[in-house]
Give the backbone structure.
Amino acid sequence: LKILKALLLQGFFYVKKTLFFLLVSSTNIYLFFKIFLQIYVILIILKYPLKGFGAMSQEFANERELEKEFEQIFENEEAHYLIAQRAHEYAKLMAYYRCAIMEVETKFRVLNEELSLEYDRNPIETIKTRLKSVESIGDKLTALNVPITVESIEQNLHDVAGVRVICGFPSDIYTLANAFLNQDDITLIEKKDYIANPKPNGYRSLHLIVEIPIFLHDEKRRMKVEVQFRTISMDWWASLEHKIRYKKDVQVPNGIAEELKECAEAAVILDNRMEQIQAKITDKDQKNAQTDLL
C-alpha cells in the first residue's frame, strides 16, 4: 500500500479527471483497480462533483494533506459499497445505450431493405455506431459545468449513443430521415440540418436527436440517441478534415482551413452531379419500361 500511495502521489496531478468513468465501465476493471478506485472516485464524485479535478488539485497541493485524505479513504468501509454500486449503475446505463443503438440500427436496416425494392438499389451504403468514450463523457460534463456523476450523464448528454447512416445521394438522406421520424415510437428532440446550412468550416450532415423506447425484461425505457446522415463524400471529407485539422503536435497553417472548405464545396458539386447522372439513368429506365409495355 505504501508503494501504491507513493505512485498515486507522484502521478496525481497528471491523472485525467475522467478516470472514474474509465475504471467503472466494467466490473472486471473495477475489481482490478479496486484500491485506486476507492481513492479516486470518492474524491471526485462525492467531494468535488462540480469543481472538478483542478479545484481538488489546488486544495490538496500539500502532499501530506493529500496522503492523509488517501489514508481516510483506505479505512472507509462505506466507500467500498458506494464504489461497487456506482460501477454497476454506470455499466447498466451503458448497456441501455447499447440497446438503443441496436434498436435504431435495426430500424434503418428494415428501411433499407424496403426502399431497395422501390429504387432497385440500396439507399444506405453503410451504418456506423458508437458509444461515446468515457473521456469524452467526462470532458463534456465538465464543459457543461454539471456534476460528474452517472445520473448526470443521462440527464445532460444527448449524444452518448450515436448512429451514423451513410447514403449514396443527398436525396436519400431526407427520404430516410422522414421515414424514420414518421415511425410512431420515435420522438424528435432536436434537428440540425448542416446540409441546408453548412458549418463555417464546410461541414455538412443532418443531425437528429431522438428518443426511442427499449424493452427490458421488466420495464420500458426511453433512451436518447444521436443520428447523423451523410453522403459518402460528406463522410470522407469530415473524417479527413478532422485528421488533418486535429493532428497531434502539428500547427495547421491558416490557409489550410480555406483549402479544406474548398474541398467540402467540391464534394457538394460531386454529390449533385452524381445524383443528376443517377436521375438520368432512372428516367431512361422508366421510359424503356413504358416502351416495352406498348
